[in-house]
């Protein structure tokens, strides 16, 4: 006998067993339906790309988190670490084949050699959606409406999409005169949720002085309702500033669309949202679940000026968002709404000693043709074994193919949880009963 | 301006643009439905694993086709090159958490540094499904029925699943007395479809002599119908051989189940099917499309003795198959049945100059709530621009939100291909019209 290799996984990598994979896959199907209903189309890109494409010219010093290596052909390659960089390369490369405005979604794995002690995984699923090639309130609103529709489709309970506009924040900072320290201010504000407002004020004071810090704290405080918040933001921006006025108008339009489509309840104007990165230039947003505010944002994003400047001189403004699939999945499990669709068959066809194989499979095929997911237990076994198997797999019903099946077409259904067998029924009645039972 | 990095892909890697990705994704959804209806459940495993897990103890000499490297933590790792090896590792590792018999499917990408000159890709999608932990005719038949059901669900036109039993072939070879040359014989026969029967006979003669070669050629010749073929196979095996009798019985049971469930038309007993590999021990099969016999098998597999012997002492017999997703997708495109479901929205909401944004988005939201995929053109543009966009994206209808929309709720639908605008309709009539138009 050869030596056994111990079966094991790399740190930070996971297997998905059927229940978990069914839940993930069901979640993805629901999101796909929402994306499609808003006109988003799917794309896919390779897992492996040239390192300079993913990391910029020369690749720079290698980020320790990136899986990068030399392939057998001597090429410097890396596993993608997000879906944004490959999308930028994709848009630059396929300009001729694509139409603008282009709205796409992409759900796929990415890899980062993160510190696993913080409960992070090195292989995880990302879900990005963007509208590229247009700068409009309609596009901004569509991204927000997709998020709201997705949260409703996933039945996550209450949620709040907190929205802000980086243009307003920038104009306020320009009036404040903090110059090049603006980026630092944005990053400090972005961290406030984690560190608390006292620490944030202190850090701001250290960066730009106590008076300016107080002004920032006033600016980012959320007021009751959209109008009072908006009034304050406009008041704190330079008077008569055209850019600030434009940003305010954009926000107002987005909120009007949300109002008209019935989603305004889930939107909140929150001046403390900045999304740190310099990348964003317009609307920015984060989404939190009311049942689980502590897990942080499950869906964030914003508007950017130029998606693909690394790969093309063509200007591609856009707005987009990423859903944290793993975080959302964990959240759904915690609040008891983990999806189980697509997991278990509805009925197990019993396979007693001496059964007719053609009859068992004919019964299963007949039920399938009526839309029932039916599985034949694949060898003769005692009923206790069937029961244990069905319970482990989450199959609620057992069908017994009666001796008379070939002539009568009758099946006896056993409700396993109730240990009760119903009188024999024909296939159509079985299918009707099972579809009722499964709702 | 910084230097532009030329957007490009690694050789053998592909982007999937929306139309291709929609087709692939639709194909996968249809397969998932078939798998689920037979009680198969999904799993997922990491893309990256320890090299010794994927390649065996010590990793041996590295196969040039495997993407293998040392990660930032000094681990010897590789990208999976198939889904069978990770599945074996998975079954050995999760024995405690899984139930047997276990039927799973797995659709995911794998990587091989193949010679791209033969039109092969280095990143491609595999689709495996297996029933593990049982050795029975019912399980063998279920795998074959899944294939037949999948081909019907995909509407590929006529197809033939050619079935054989390696046990019968082995007993025949034992009677022939070719000893250790049996494996070579199986591989030569496996290649016959590519090289032709004359070359095969010649190669066989060189390997085992002209008389034995003639016997093999007689054995593998397909006779008209199941019974005559079966009679010949039994006749050429050792007389009264128990193993041959058992193999013959198994084949007969599988064909009886296919007959009872209405699939016998698509099954053919073909003694020339061997599937080369020593791995297979029972039933083996290949699937060819009648419209495209030249592309080879789109779905093959068979029964094996022991899935996970590298990782566990626990014996795991099974039967399984792999669908060549890329090949099948290419075939569907050639025969004009490429799927386009899930691709384009049904209706584009026109966005003329001066339109009310809330009205446009309310109209879209209303249609979505009636099940229609509706997209708002995201900025004001001339109708010609709308038409061009809709045509490129494959959207068949344009909806004009009339000035009276807010009070009347009426929309005017334009059938773009016919350049014809219908009288204004309310939302329900629009939804009913679009769902009729899209069938």
Topology, element by element:
The structure is a homodimer of 439-residue chains.
Chain A (H helix, E strand, L loop, with lengths): L17 H20 L3 E2 L5 E3 H5 L12 E3 L5 E4 L4 H10 L8 E10 L11 E10 L4 H17 L5 E7 H11 L5 H9 L1 H4 L1 H12 L1 H11 L5 H11 L5 H19 L6 E3 L10 E10 L9 E6 L13 E7 H10 L12 E3 L7 H13 L4 E3 L6 H11 L3 E5 L3 H4 L1 E6 L4 E2 L3 E2 H11 L2
Parallel strand pairs in A: 1-5, 7-8, 12-13, 12-14
Antiparallel strand pairs in A: 2-4, 3-4, 5-6, 6-11, 7-9, 9-10, 10-11, 14-15, 15-16, 15-17
Polypeptide structure, described:
The structure is a homodimer of 439-residue chains. Chain A has 439 residues and is of the alpha+beta class. Helix content of chain A is 41%, strand content 20%. Chain A has 16 helices and 17 strands. In chain A, helix 4 packs parallel to helix 11 and helix 6 (182-190) runs antiparallel to helix 8 (197-208). The longest helix of chain A has 20 residues, at 18-37.
């Amino acid at each position: 006998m050869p030596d056994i290799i111990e079966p094991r996984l790399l740190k930070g990598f996971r297997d998905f067993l059927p229940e978990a994979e069914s839940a993930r896959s069901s979640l993805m199907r629901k999101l796909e339906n929402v994306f499609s209903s808003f006109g988003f189309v799917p794309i896919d890109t390779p897992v492996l790309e040239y390192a300079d494409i993913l990391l910029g010219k020369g690749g720079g010093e290698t980020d320790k988190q990136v899986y990068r290596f030399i392939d057998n052909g001597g090429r410097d390659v890396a596993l993608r670490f997000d879906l944004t960089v490959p999308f930028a390369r994709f848009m630059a490369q396929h300009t001729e084949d694509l139409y603008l405005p282009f709205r796409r979604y992409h759900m796929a794995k990415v890899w980062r050699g993160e510190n696993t002690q913080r409960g992070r995984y090195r292989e995880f699923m990302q879900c990005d959606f963007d509208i590229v090639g247009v700068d409009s309130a309609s596009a901004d609103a569509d991204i927000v409406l997709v998020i709201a529709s997705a949260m409703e489709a996933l039945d996550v309970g209450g949620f709040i999409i907190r929205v802000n506009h980086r243009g307003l924040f920038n104009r306020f900072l320009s009036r404040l005169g903090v110059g090049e320290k603006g980026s630092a201010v944005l990053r400090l504000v972005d961290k406030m949720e984690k560190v608390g407002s006292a620490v944030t004020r202190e850090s701001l004071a250290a960066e730009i002085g106590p008076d300016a810090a107080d002004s920032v704290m006033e600016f980012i405080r959320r007021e009751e309702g959209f109008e009072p918040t908006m009034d304050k933001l406009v008041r704190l921006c330079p008077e008569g500033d055209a850019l600030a006025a434009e940003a305010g108008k954009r926000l107002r339009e987005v909120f009007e669309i949300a109002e008209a489509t019935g989603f305004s309840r889930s939107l909140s104007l929150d001046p403390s949202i900045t999304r740190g990165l310099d990348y964003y230039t317009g609307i920015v947003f984060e989404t939190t679940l009311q049942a689980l505010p502590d897990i942080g944002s499950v869906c964030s994003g914003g508007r950017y000026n130029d998606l693909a400047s690394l790969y093309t001189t063509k200007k591609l403004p856009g707005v987009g968002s990423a859903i944290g699939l793993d975080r959302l999945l964990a959240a759904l499990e915690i609040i008891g709404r983990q999806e189980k669709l697509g997991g278990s068959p509805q009925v197990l066809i019993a396979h007693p000693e001496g059964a007719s194989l053609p009859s068992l499979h004919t019964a299963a095929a007949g039920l399938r043709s009526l839309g029932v997911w039916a599985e034949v237990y694949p060898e003769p076994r005692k009923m206790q074994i069937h029961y244990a198997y069905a319970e482990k797999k989450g199959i609620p019903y057992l069908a017994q193919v009666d001796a008379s099946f070939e002539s009568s077409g009758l099946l006896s259904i056993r409700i396993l949880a109730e240990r009760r067998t119903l009188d024999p029924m024909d296939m159509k009645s079985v299918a009707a009963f099972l579809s009722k039972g499964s709702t």
